[in-house]
Amino acid sequence: MPHNGRYRTCAREVERAYATYAQTYPQGFTPLGAASFTSVNIAHVVLDVPLDEHFDFRVPDGLDAPVGALVLVPFGRTRKVGVVIGHARTSAVPPARLKDIQARVEDVEPLGPAELELFDFCAAYYQRPLGEVIAASLPPRLRQVNRRRIEAPAVAHRESGFAITMPLTAEQQAAVDLVRAREGEFHPVLLHGVTGSGKTEVYLHLVAGALARGRQALVLVPEIGLTPQFESQVRARFPGATVVAAHSHLNDGERAAAWLAAQTGAAQVVLGTRLGVLMPFRDLGLIVVDEEHDGSYKQQEGLRYSARDVAVRRAQRLAIPVVLGSATPSLESFSNARDGRYALARLPARAAAGATFPAVRTVDTRADRPADGLSFALLEAVRTRLARGEQSLVFVNRRGFAPVLFCRACTWHSTCTRCSANLVLHLRDGQLRCHHCGRHERIPAKCPSCGTPDLAPVGQGTQRVEEALTAALPNARIARVDRDSTARRGALKAVLDRVKSGDIDVLIGTQMLAKGHDYPALTLVGVLDADSALFSADFRASERLFAQLVQVSGRAGRGARPGEVLIQTDFPHHPLYAAVGLHDFDRFAEAALDERRLAGFPPFSHLALLRAESKNSGEATAFLKAAARIARRIGTVEVFDPVPATLERKAGFERAQLLARSPTRAAMQPFLRRWREALAEREDRRVRWSLDVDPQEV
């Protein structure tokens, strides 16, 4: 099995817990069915351990432990919360070794067949143990062995109807009708709506329909920052409905309460980030995935699932509609719609009266050299908006003051000793920080290499741009939005409320502001440092950059006042920037799909990435070379040679990766199962490895 860092200790627990089995069976644990020693009521229980096995426990007389129930079981020197996935009358475990279930978790209803089937699919498709998948779906509070009882939320009276006061445009109504045309069956719909076209209004009408039928609705958003705004819209529209949010910024009690409310049916609308797709529901009738293209829907650690793809699978099994909305659909979803696998609804125009697309133009930074990241043209445009009482957004997708601290005398620059990355200058905190491993140190007064005090920041982050704008526009009300400034709970909502009320003139921010926010007075967007993504080796880089630019450009001119977008670049005639200016997604997508087809990349193939890392140089690559030899013996898919990871060293580990490609999932999935089993047999404890199915970053 793959070893993540947290599984080091867990693996030792497994060894201790089954040491007695090894005494009985020298070759290791005997699989169920190989021998039968016990004839009692046996429960098959899965636990959050790095094994694909379930564990047998005896069900004591008088204890009800149905399939799906959470139970407390002894495990080595500890106790764990597990889930019952089946029963048997016999077990391969000798009676003297078979242990009892200690208790059932009574304040949580058993997981239903639909959820267990979904988890089984995730375990098989993403090549992870079932116990780990189920554990990932449970809030931390419910996985605790010792905790206080949680009172079940009351199931509110379901209203039979909900008033809709907002009229729809003809295109919005057509989209709603398309989704409703096949209620009661699996019906995937790609809602391709330009920025400001009113996709949210379509979602709300569809949610109203689900609630009117007495069913629940799940709405997924990619960023935690989008949940407060959408939640307030849902609550305002449906004051009689019970709405809960589900995301990682909630405390343990709040997450558990939201999970239980969805499971019991007390929650009629669940608004969540990617973890929401794994929550249990009493009667789910609609799934909406907003900004379906966003990479945040792909989990990058542990169970590396795509919430968008799991949402489609869940809707298929439940025979309900699933709506994937975006102004810049992923090429995979666009291809599915173009080929007829998804229905396609379009919102080609902005919904607000008089609203038009913003004018997009480039600023040639070879001629108009920026000072502290800001060109003269951009500063003048911001001043013009200030004079007119309008708002501006300056987008720079890098937090901190500057990406690196540099010595002009000897060319020393601040680097992380644990990662192959620079230490980012955070001037206000007096620190150099690594944004990958978290290492930090004080800003040196002089160069650590040559001793000269001639140190200078290079490049710009949000803090530096904020400082430059404050100096250039002393009377402007300026706010910065990034992970550092919004770390405190409620800070993001407070800033965005000030923007909405007109108390902010200039907003500086990262990708947190690039999508989903609607401010009619915001008429100017300035984009800094977009060129850094033009020459990435990742085949998805151009798709991500185009989507990001279209999304952030879409913040401008959403009301009656026209908008303008200025993109600072050394390559003002690059075709990608021209495509953004044309507001023609289809043209960009068709050209990108042609390139993907020629190169054999998704959606015209299916990928899996084997990642390996080790503290010892060369061991990760050696492991991957051996893995490649095994893969080629298995055959059926194309296997590339190992290469260093994009970030070659992280937190003291040397990292490398190996790509496998197949024209079909039908060939890829059996290959991955055999490959993983073979790798587990020759596992080297000095190397940590994991499989990423359908990787988003290659």
What is the strand and helix layout of this fold?
Elements: H1 7-17, H2 19-24, E1 38-46, E2 55-58, E3 70-75, E4 78-91, E5 103-104, H3 113-125, H4 130-137, H5 170-180, E6 187-193, H6 199-212, E7 216-220, H7 227-237, E8 243-246, H8 252-264, E9 269-272, E10 284-290, H9 307-318, E11 321-326, H10 331-338, E12 343-347, E13 359-364, H11 376-388, E14 391-395, E15 404-407, E16 424-426, E17 431-433, E18 440-442, E19 455-458, H12 462-472, E20 478-481, H13 491-500, E21 506-509, E22 522-527, H14 541-553, E23 564-569, H15 575-582, H16 585-599, E24 606-614, H17 619-634, E25 638-639, E26 643-650, E27 653-662, H18 665-681, E28 688-693
Helix pairs in contact: 3-4, 5-6, 14-15, 17-18
Quaternary organization: single chain
Summing up helix and strand content along with how strands pair, one would put the structural category as alpha/beta
Tell me the total number of β-strands.
28
End-to-end gap: 22 Å
Strand content: 15-25%
Helix content: 25-40%
Q: What is the approximate shape? A: globular
Trace the largest sheet across and list its strands.
Answer: 8-9-7-10-11-6-12
**What is the makeup of the main sheet?**
7 strands, parallel
Q: What is Rg?
A: 27 Å
The averaged pLDDT comes out at 89
The poorly predicted ranges are: 1-39
Discrete helix count: 18
